[in-house]
Amino acid sequence: MPPAGAEGTAPEPPPLIGLATVYRHAPSLILCIHVAITPALADEWALCDYHPPAPDTTYPDDGQLRFRADKAVLDREGVSRLEGNVEVFQSTRTLTANRFEYEKARDYLEATGNVTFEDRAGLSFDSSAGHLYLDSEKGRFEEVEYFFQPRHARGKARTIEPRGAERFRLNHASYTTCDPGRQDWQLTASRVDLNQDTGRGTARNVLLRFHRVPLLYTPWINFPIDDRRQSGLLLPSIGNADSTGLDVEIPYYFNLAPHRDAILAPRYLGRRGTMLGAQYRHLSQSSAGEFDLEYLPDDSVYGNDRSLFIWDQQWRPTSRLRLHTEGSDVSDADYLSDFGNSLSDTSTTHLERRADLSYHASHWNLLARLEDYQTVDDSIVDPNQPYKRLPQFLYHGSWPQSAYGIDLGMRAEWVSFDRRDSITGQRTDIMPEASLPLRGAAWFLTPRVRYRFTHYDLEGQPAGTDPSLQRNLPVTSVDAGLFFDRPLGEDRFQTLEPRLFYRYTPYRDQDDLPRFDTSEYGFNFDQLFRDQSFSGPDRVADANQLTTALTSRVVDAGTGIERFRVSLGQVHYFEDRRVRSEPGDPPLTDNSSSIVAEAAWRPDANWSVRGTTQWDPHREQTERRTAHLQYREDGNRVVNLGYRFQEDRLDQTDLSFAWPLSRRWDAVGRWAYSLEDERDLEILAGLEYNTCCWGARVVFRRYLTDGLQDEYNEGIHFQLILKGLGSLGTGLGDLLSEGILGYEDDY
Fold it and tell me: What are the TM regions of this chain, as residue ranges (predicted)?
């Protein structure tokens, strides 16, 4: 026995092992006396005033038990006593008290007077007194107060009772993440039972208060206390909008199995009735899928049942074979405009349904597809709706460096098209290709040749028209470029990159060929270097043309960051282009294309500018123009200013921002406006208030849902965030992240 006031090391540390059994589970109090906890961010507690230093353990983490006390006594009856400023250390834990007493016969440990516990992980624990039977791990600790630094969480419990291995009971427990001395919000329970073995906890008389105002109460609840998924209620969502009225959703989560779960979400819509939402998900080594359903019986406004069904399912029976099916279906054409969340939702005209079976080998892959569409725009008549592919078989092959450095490839397709009141039929398209990529330190040259064979077996054509049609033609191109660079000072260099792209395809009359799935590519800088002008096989543009382009960059030599880039290009035509999308369209006779320019500038880590322009020199008219300016310090300090113009189609501005007004107040906003139509496309304005332990957001949103009828949807969304616990109200993170480029949600 060491003398009083001495330090010692014990080879057998049963007392501390017993206490460690209690205290290593103490974070369960923090994690388990509420229904759900959201992860905390590293700087989430920057507004808090209380930041205790991390415990400083001077002893090594070697598992040895060490103690320090003013007095240590071991009597003949096997009772050990440590008295006076007792400190016990083991690994990363420190336990102190005025007095420790251990009875070996009963395997009983008692600590009295200013019992404290600290862990290097950030848990601190105070108790007036406590005892523990080490063999049964049963005991009781009085008047407990705790603080868990990583979550800035603290609380109290009148008693904590270890009730055997992995089981605890807390009486009159509380939890909050507010600074000491403040109770902006607090969660309390009259009794909490925790079972680490099952990963479950139960609580009685659970009450959540915000500024002493009760928000939620339940007399009994069963909840998870670890990462194992468990069934239970999720936090409700509350909102309000013109199209729905008051919108309240209360989801319930079902943990069906380790690889399967589901959600049922009753949703009250003040203007329309009660909707039921459901989601089912599964995941295994060979399959994954998600199914979503919304059903609204007898919509009070629409006067009929409404529904939406979305599915996405994948199977991988082998490493090379994959089956994927996805799609969506709505009950009526107005569903998306009534319940969609954005202009892109409400302007959707077709919903795709598709099933793909694919096989992937080392150098080739094969796809079998069934595809059709649901048209949700009543103004689109049958002959203008997309064709169904029933079925489609598509083969792709690629054999790089096959012989003499030549890259070989093959694309082959057979597809059967179907559509009501239209020409239908089967199309076979085969296109082998060969290219020879040559490259040096400052140059590249890639000649390529393709041969395209396309055959049609058609039905529904006018009388006297040949139902069997075919087209054969070669497609050739040569792509070449040079790279020059020069130093700009000590840390940057500038490049000059001229590029030529020659393309030749002979003319074939294709006016008799149907146009099943082919449209003309939009003209932009990338299109200058494509050897195809159409997206599908039904049209192959004739071409005898040369693209000339020049790009210059300024690059940081040390980091490789591109600080500035400008590109300029134009196509020069040596012959008229006679192949057009529609029969009877006149040939294109200009001897050159529009001039396309792109530029991007990043002067530092915060600022970025980019823009494009497309100018027709023959008409001296700008056809397209885009510009975007962004200032971004972090996810909460970002400003975007954008402009888009397309001749005779759109002329729009877009301003969005997220910016702190003070240490506690932040503002967010977006204004998208059509100069062409002189109307708003979307207005979003909101404020966010933050404190140490809670935050609140209120956002007003107005967006266009029907451009023809000039109809808008308006709503006010509110969200209360209780840091370290969860949020109440409408989840606004996705809405703000999608509307404000560069914004990052903290919650």
Answer: none
Q: Which are the contacts of 708, defined by CB distance < 8 A and separation ≥ 6? A: none
User: What is the C-alpha to C-alpha distance for residues 75 and 442, in angstroms, rounded to an integer?
Assistant: 89
Fold of the CATH domain 7-229: lipopolysaccharide transport protein A fold (2.60.450)
pLDDT (tens digit per residue) in 330-380: 999 889 888 877 666 767 889 999 999 999 999 999 999 999 999 998 888
- Tell me, yes or no, if the pTM score tops 0.90: no
Q: Distance between CA atoms of 243 and 276, rounded to whole angstroms? A: 17
Measured CA to CA, the distance from residue 281 to residue 313 in angstroms comes to 9
CA distance 734 to 167: 39
In this structure, the number of other CB atoms found within 10 A of the CB of residue 94 comes to 21
* Closest alpha carbon to 80 in 56, 51, 103: 103
**What is the separation, in whole angstroms, between the first and last Cα of the chain?**
54
Token pair, residue 641, equals 């200013």
Could you tell me which residue, 235 or 467, shows the higher pLDDT?
467
Residues 6+ positions from 562 with CB-CB distance below 8 Å: 553, 554, 555, 600, 602
Q: How far apart are CA 206 and CA 193, in angstroms?
A: 12
The phi, psi pair for 298, rounded to 5°, reads 50, 65
Q: In angstroms, rounded to a whole number, what is the distance separating the alpha carbons of residues 265 and 76?
A: 67
Nearest residue to 672 (alpha-carbon basis) of 635, 708, 643: 643
Pairing of strands 726-729, 71-74: unpaired
267 within 8 A of 241, measured Cβ to Cβ: no
Distance CA 641, CA 635 (A): 16
- 442-457 pLDDT per residue, tens: 999 999 999 999 999 9
Identity at 301, one-letter amino acid code: V
531 vs 26: CA distance, rounded Å: 67
220 token code pair: 């009994």
- CA–CA dist 164, 251 (Å, integer): 35
Say if residue 294's pLDDT is above 90: yes
Strand partners, 632: 638
Residue 222 makes CB contacts below 8 A (sequence gap 6+) with 200, 201, 202, 230, 232
Degrees (nearest 5) of the Cα angle 377, 378, 379? 90
Tokens of 528: 């200058």
Q: Residue 8 and residue 20: Cα distance in Å, rounded?
A: 19
Please state, in angstroms and rounded to a whole number, the distance separating the CA atoms of residues 586 and 579.
9
369 with 394: CB under 8 angstroms? Answer: yes
Residue 226: what pLDDT?
A: 67
CA 341, distance to chain mean position in Å, is 17
CA distances from residue 41 to 150, 151, 259, 723, 745 in whole angstroms, order as listed: 9, 9, 28, 10, 11
State the average pLDDT over residues 530-559: 95
Residue type, 627: A
Instruction: Give the integer Cα–Cα distance in Å for 392 and 414.
Output: 6
Strand partners, 634: 637
Q: Report yes or no: 179 and 693 within 8 Å, Cβ to Cβ.
A: yes
Cis-peptide into 391, omega within 30 deg:
yes
Going by C-alpha positions, the residue among 530, 531, 522, 570 that lies closest to residue 550 is 570
Residue 38: pLDDT band by 50, 70, 90 thresholds? Answer: very low
CA atoms within 13 Å, Cβ hemisphere of 495: 23
Q: Which two tokens stand for residue 481?
A: 């470029």
Task: Measure CA 672 to chain center.
Answer: 23
Domain boundaries, the chain: 7-229, 231-422, 436-619, 627-747
C-beta pairs of 182-185 under 8 Å, 24+ apart in sequence: 182/692, 182/693, 183/209, 183/212, 184/210, 184/211, 184/691, 184/692, 184/693, 184/694, 185/209, 185/210, 185/211, 185/693, 185/694, 185/722, 185/725
